[in-house]
Every structure is written in C-alpha cells, then in structure tokens.
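Below is a filled-in request sheet from our internal design queue. Each sheet records the structural input a requester submitted and the sequence that came back. We keep these sheets so that new team members can see what a complete request looks like end to end.

REQUESTER: design group, bay 2
PRIORITY: normal
MODE: inverse folding
CHAIN LENGTH: 835
BACKBONE (tokenized):
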C-alpha cells in the first residue's frame, strides 16, 4: 500500500510540475502576445522551469529577442573571468529607442540642475537577476520577463514602455549560474524527487553561489573589484536608475520577502523618503502576490545598511534599491514547511515581482523622478556648505595602493585632484604622485561621506552584513580633512606610477618593500633564479634611508650577466610600478650589503587548502590575490585529496577559516611537514583546530556572558548583538618584525568579524601586532567584546621543529578590497624563515 501511495505521489508531482512549465502558468492573460516574437522554448529547447537555464542558452535567447523586437537593444559590456559575456538589454518603446541618447542625457541633467520637469520623462529601472548563481529563479524568470516585455501587446504594455526605460541584466553572475545549472540538471531525475535528502539539493563545494574566484558579488557594488561589478557600475553611473531590483533566494522553508527591511537597520545617510517610497512600491508587490496566492513578508528581516549590496547601493546614489528573496527549491522540486515547492513556482514569484516593480515605477513615476531630482539638489546644497573643504589621502611610500583607492573613486564618478606639491598635515606627509585631494563640494558628496566616514554609534546592534567599510582604513593610507588649496589639476586619466631601474649597476640593486606590488616583483626575481636577500635592519645608502624589509639583488655571481640583470629588472619593475635603485658599493651607514642581516630568500611554493570544511569565500580571496595581482601560482589542495598529496612540494600551506579541520592521520601528516621546515598560515577557526591538535598552544581569552532581564522573544537579538559582523580596529606594530616589513606607520587598521581573542604573550617581542587599549576605529562592537579585544593580539607565531605556524584571528584579504593588510600574508609567505 505504501509503495502504491509513493508511486502515485511521484506521478502526481511530476505531472504537476510539468503543467507548471507551460507559458500559460506564468504569463498574465490580460494582454495578447505577438506571435512573431520567439518564445523561450522555441530557442532554448525546453519550457521555462523544466530545466535550469544555462548561461549560454540564456544569452542565445536574449540575442534572439533583440533581433526580433524593436523594443530591445542588446550590448555585451565585457566578460567574466571565465569569458562569459556580461549582457545588458535596454527595453523601452520603439520611439524612445530612437531618442535614447536624448532621454539618457535629460535624465542625468535632472540630477545636476535645480529645475527639472518630470511630466514627460521616462523613469529608469535597472532589473538584475541572480547575483548568487545558486539562487537561479531570478535568471530563469528573466526569460519570461524579457519575453513578456517584447511580445505583450495592448494599451497597458504600450503605456508602460512609453514611460519606462528598463536596463535589463539577465544574469549578474554568469559563471556561478552556469556552475549551478550544471549541478541541478545533471542530478535531476526524470521522475522529479522532492526528497530534500536527494543529491540534487546538496551541491558539492564550493557551490554555485559565487563567481569564478568564489567571491560573493553582492558585496562588491561599492568596492568594485570584479569585472562583473565594473561593468554594471559603469552602466549604473551612466544612467543613474531610479529603481534597482536585486532578485535572490533564501531557505526552502521561507516564503517571499520584499523590502523595506527592518526599519531600524537603515543607514543614517539614507533619506527617510527613500524608505517611504520603498513601502509605496511594496504595496504593488503585495497586490500582485495576493492575486496569485503567494505568501510573503516585509520589514521583518534583512536591512539597508551596507552600501556595497545591490539593494542598498542605489540608496546613497539617489535611487531606490529593492531586494527580493524567494524561498529556494535548490533544484527542481522539494518538500518544504509550506508544502511542495516547485522550481516553476519560485520562478513565477520572481516574474510576478519583476512586473509589479514595473507597475510601481509606472504608477509612481513622477513621485520617484522628483525624489531623485531632490536627492541631488539637496546633496548639492550640502556640498556647497563644504566650501573648500576636502579630503587628502595617500601613502608617500606606496603609489600603487593609493592608485587603487583612487581607481574606485573614479569608477563611482567622484572627482579628485593631484596635489600641487608635497605637503604635511596632521603629522602626515603627502607626496605628489602618491596622494590625491577629494573636494567635498561635488555632486557625489553623500557617496564620499559613505566611503570615508568612521561611524561607531548605531541605532541598532544587529547587522545583516558588515558595519564598517571606511575605505582609507581598508587601504591603510594616510588621510585627513584639508582644503582645496592643496589641490592641483583634476585627475582625468588615472595612471600607475612609472617604474624602472634608476641606472645600470655592476654591484647591486636595492628595492624598498613598501610598494604594493613589491611581492610580484620579488616573485619574478626568484622565479628567474636570481639570488635576492632581505634586510633585517634599516640603513642608509647613497644618501637615502632604507627601512626594514629592503630587498637586495647582487649584480655579480648570478646566472645572468650584469647587463642581462639590468634589462630583466627594468622590465619587471615597470610591470610592478616600483623603483629599483642601483648602488655601486656595499659600504653603508648602518649594515653593509654583505652583512648577515641580509637574509637569502627562496622561491615560495604555495598551496591553499580548499574543499569540504573550508570557507570558500576566504580561500577564493587568497586565490584571487595571488593569481591576479601577484602572479603567484598557488595549488588548490582539496581536502579530499590531502591524504595522498606530496606536501614536500610546498614551502607554505594556507588554511583559511575551517570548521572541520583534518582527521588524525592528515593532522599527523601536516605536523610532520611543518617539522621538516614547512610554514602553515592559518586563519580564524583554523586556530581552534591548531590549538586542539596541540600543533601550537594558543591562549584564547574567554568572556563569560549572562543574559539578565532578556525575554525569550529578545534572546535572538541579544545573542546577535554579541556578533562582530565586521568592524575596524587599531593595532600597534613592531615594525622590526618580518611580518610587518613594508609598513611605514606604527599603527595599522585591521578588519575583523570574529570573536577569537588571543591573549598577548608575556614577552613583548612575541607580539608584533597588538590591539591598542581602545582599538575601535569604525563599526559596531558590543561593550563586552570591546573590553575583551583590548590589548589582545590578532596574530600568533609559533615554531614546530624546523617549520612554523603563522596564525591570524581574522581574514587579512577581506573581499578583495582590504589592500591595507594584504602585505601581512605576503610577508608570511616570503619571509617565513625569518620569523
């Protein structure tokens, strides 16, 4: 009997799912459809929702629509790391297309003048889908939405298209979408299986959420470090859309969420009217979802605080960002607390919200256009009050790092100037070519405030994402309030510093370690087989002061002639944007070039532990850093293959945040490798594993917390307030320690989002980096945790046999834009034997 019931259930489920994939299941029936416009099935070979759309088929269909419809133009804005196109469809009435440049210019002009007429101007809506590749209902709904906008006929659609310019981004994460579609489709049964234990609903590591380098791209709208982000940010600033939608998925047992989020968790720089308009738009979503009988909620979770998310980025740029979160089937059909959840149903909800957004844009067009106009009008008034106030930032020893911060400003249409000449302010030196001045009196003054502010007081103690992202702290550049009196020419063409060798030498060359790309240079030198040494002390040569960590390359007794060495160093110095100083004598003021205080360096051979039990974000950020910035080959060593891997191939193994660690046999293997001279660089929870396996003793500082006067209802918020979601703290450096080579300041801002607190060693020389007594620079931390972090250390170094362990409590390479602490990892890799 049970078998019969099961077969009946499966048959019914299969038929039910198949009936849901017909176009009639999704499309509104209050319009007619142009038969000359190709349906999705006619191009991709299957109904929407029957299979997960692969990115190549998605691209194929979007081009087919653009060819068949005069409502659509299409452009390829670039490519992903895996060479997939980054498409944008512009969808509007044919007459608008004929005047699209005029419409675009009028739209931008309305943000730059004190008067603007919204009566006849189209509203601009950016609709983006599935920035997380394993949240695919968005991109699959994009098939339907694009078809509807191309094929629907009648007065209703004509009015919508006349009044709206739609910037349509069918896949915000092509690489991740392709990865997940492959997984879901290759594990799909012909008789759909709703059992959540089925392999279909449990992706293998790292899953399809992220891009090629395992980045969460929905955190990159403000830092703009990835090619996908750069393409869409260029589009964003060229249009300044009024509404931007961001279609996501959440847990299978949820329903459907649309913004606003929790009101108390809105960033203070976001105008109140923004949230009121968001609530107005929400009524359109509710009405549409009511019509199809879908459950939903709003204002009970998520937030509008971090401006690096797609749904929040518009809020500081005069637009309205809207997050949609759909309960995920994670495949084709799955049991849930709300009944059987089918993939077509998730698509239908996303499609419904896509159309309700456009209905809201049309219905609230003038109101929202006026809001954007007034946002920038008020911003200009605030900017005018700033007068000649400005921010200067830079690093007199590191032009490349300064360049990359300026590069972000440029991508966000923030104007900045070179400086007229070197000057000092507030005890910091600002050098021409290494520093820039940002006037506060400009259009994007609010965005400047959002990027440069330090905030330590908050209305709420819970954050969906990080609570601090102060860019000059992230880049570890000097910065201060100044005036435009120091400003030179506006920077139109931002370029790297020109590198090279000063002159040819037959004796030796010196290279300061301060420049960001010095590790790239050193790696090329060592790969070439040249001998290179690092200075353990500071000294003076040729009238110039050289700091700890200065590199020295002899011109003689090498496998290349002095002339060949000069040519080679000149070439790679230009690529690394740094200066190589030629010297003609080894006699210095301080240590001489033949001193034992110059230590010979070896070519690092690096492996990154990846796979089950490892946090893919952190591993991907290191892979990206080594591969794309420093041209260092790193082996991705999967945990499932660790047992049979030959570890003697590697000088350094990096273990990022790990929640599983290695079994006893593999622990013994890595211990032996360390004892034989290897270096293990570990991060975050990997430290608990190291301590538990007695590879190194780590004295964690424990805090006792007792909840008093906290109700059952309040317990979640109480516990959440003890989380360090992401804040910035001040540390004191011992610059003579090799882990800190290349830092010119005694203080270093460090990002952290863990509650791992390590007690300082009783011997001060074992504490090369230590939190100050009052370390909070920016972001939220509870008073109890702030007391706990005071004077602790974020780094522990220990020896084991001939090797060592270098352990960090937090990620020093956070999200690819934390340039200021990238050097710590590079020092651990190149100077490991000196620690």
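RETURNED SEQUENCE:
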């Amino acid at each position: 009997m049970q078998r019969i019931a099961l077969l009946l259930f499966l048959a019914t489920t299969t038929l039910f799912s198949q009936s849901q994939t017909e176009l009639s299941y999704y499309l509104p029936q209050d319009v007619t459809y142009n038969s000359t416009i190709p349906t999705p099935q006619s191009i991709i070979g299957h109904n929407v929702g029957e299979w997960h759309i692969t990115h190549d088929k998605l691209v194929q269909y979007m081009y087919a629509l653009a060819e068949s419809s005069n409502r659509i133009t299409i452009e390829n804005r670039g490519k992903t790391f895996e060479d997939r196109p980054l498409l944008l469809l512009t969808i509007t009435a044919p007459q608008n297309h004929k005047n699209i440049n005029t419409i675009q210019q009028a739209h931008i002009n309305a943000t730059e003048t004190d008067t603007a007429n919204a009566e006849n101007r189209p509203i601009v809506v950016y609709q983006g889908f599935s920035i997380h590749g394993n949240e695919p209902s968005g991109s699959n709904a994009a098939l339907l939405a694009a078809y509807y906008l191309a094929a629907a006929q009648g007065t209703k659609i004509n009015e919508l298209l006349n009044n709206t310019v739609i910037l349509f981004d069918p896949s915000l994460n092509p690489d991740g979408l392709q990865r997940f579609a492959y997984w879901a489709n290759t594990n799909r049964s012909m008789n759909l299986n709703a059992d959540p234990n089925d392999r279909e609903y449990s992706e293998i590591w790292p899953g399809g959420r992220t891009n090629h380098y395992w980045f969460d791209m929905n955190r990159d709208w403000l830092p703009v470090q990835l090619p996908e982000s750069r393409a869409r940010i260029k589009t964003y600033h060229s249009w300044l859309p009024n509404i931007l939608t961001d279609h996501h998925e959440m847990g299978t047992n949820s329903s459907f969420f649309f913004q606003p989020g929790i009101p108390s968790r809105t960033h203070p720089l976001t105008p109140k009217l923004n949230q009121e308009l968001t609530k107005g738009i929400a009524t359109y979503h509710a009405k549409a979802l009511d019509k199809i009988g879908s459950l939903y909620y709003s204002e009970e979770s998520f937030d509008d605080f971090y401006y690096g998310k797609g749904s929040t980025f518009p809020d500081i740029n005069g637009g309205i960002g809207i997050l949609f979160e759909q309960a995920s089937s994670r495949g084709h059909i799955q049991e849930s607390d709300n009944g059987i959840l089918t993939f077509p149903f998730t698509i239908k909800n996303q499609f419904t919200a896509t159309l309700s957004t456009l209905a809201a844009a049309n219905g609230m067009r003038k109101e929202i256009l006026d809001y954007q106009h007034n946002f920038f009008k008020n911003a200009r008034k605030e900017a005018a009050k700033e007068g000649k106030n400005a921010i200067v930032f830079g690093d007199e020893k590191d032009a490349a790092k300064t360049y990359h911060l300026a590069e972000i400003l440029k991508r966000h249409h923030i104007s900045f100037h070179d400086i007229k000449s070197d000057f000092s302010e507030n005890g910091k030196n600002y050098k021409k070519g290494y520093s820039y001045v940002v006037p506060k009196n400009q259009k994007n003054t609010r965005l400047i405030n959002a990027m440069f502010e330090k905030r330590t007081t908050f209305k709420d103690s819970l954050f969906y994402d990080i609570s601090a992202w102060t860019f000059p702290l992230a880049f570890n550049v000097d910065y201060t309030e100044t005036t435009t009196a120091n400003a030179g020419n506006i920077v139109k063409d931002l370029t790297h510093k020109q590198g090279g060798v000063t002159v040819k030498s037959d004796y030796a060359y010196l290279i300061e370690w301060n420049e960001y790309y010095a590790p790239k240079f050193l790696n090329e030198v060592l790969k070439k087989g040249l001998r290179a040494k690092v200075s353990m002390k500071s000294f003076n040569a040729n009238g110039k002061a050289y700091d700890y960590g200065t590199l020295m390359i002899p011109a003689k007794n090498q496998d290349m002639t002095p002339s060949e060495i000069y040519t080679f160093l000149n070439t790679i110095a230009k690529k690394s944007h740094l200066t190589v100083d030629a010297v003609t004598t080894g006699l210095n003021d301080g240590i001489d070039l033949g001193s034992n205080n110059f230590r010979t360096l070896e070519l690092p051979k690096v492996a990154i532990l990846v796979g089950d039990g490892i946090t893919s974000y952190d591993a991907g950020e290191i892979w990206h850093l080594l591969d794309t910035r420093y041209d260092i080959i790193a082996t991705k060593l999967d945990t499932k293959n660790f047992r049979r891997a030959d570890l003697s191939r590697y000088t350094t193994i990096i273990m990022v945040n790990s929640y599983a660690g290695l079994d006893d046999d593999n622990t013994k293997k890595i211990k032996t490798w360390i004892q034989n001279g290897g270096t293990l660089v570990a991060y975050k929870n990997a430290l608990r594993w190291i301590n538990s396996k007695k590879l190194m003793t780590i004295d964690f500082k424990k805090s006792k917390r007792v909840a008093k006067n906290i109700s059952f209802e309040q317990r979640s918020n109480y516990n959440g307030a003890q989380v360090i979601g992401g804040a910035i703290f001040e540390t004191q450096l011992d610059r003579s320690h090799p882990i800190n080579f290349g830092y010119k300041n005694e203080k270093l801002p460090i990002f952290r989002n863990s509650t791992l607190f390590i007690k300082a060693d009783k011997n001060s020389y074992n504490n090369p980096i230590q939190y100050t007594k009052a370390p909070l620079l920016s972001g939220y931390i509870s008073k109890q945790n702030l007391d706990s972090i005071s004077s602790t250390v974020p780094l522990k170094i220990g020896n084991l046999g001939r090797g060592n362990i270098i352990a960090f409590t937090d990620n020093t390479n956070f999200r690819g834009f934390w340039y200021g602490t990238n050097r710590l990892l590079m020092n651990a890799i190149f100077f490991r034997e000196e620690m």
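SHEET NOTES:
- Residues 12 and 35 are 32 Å apart (CA to CA).
- The first helix runs from residue 2 to 20.
FILED BY: M.R.
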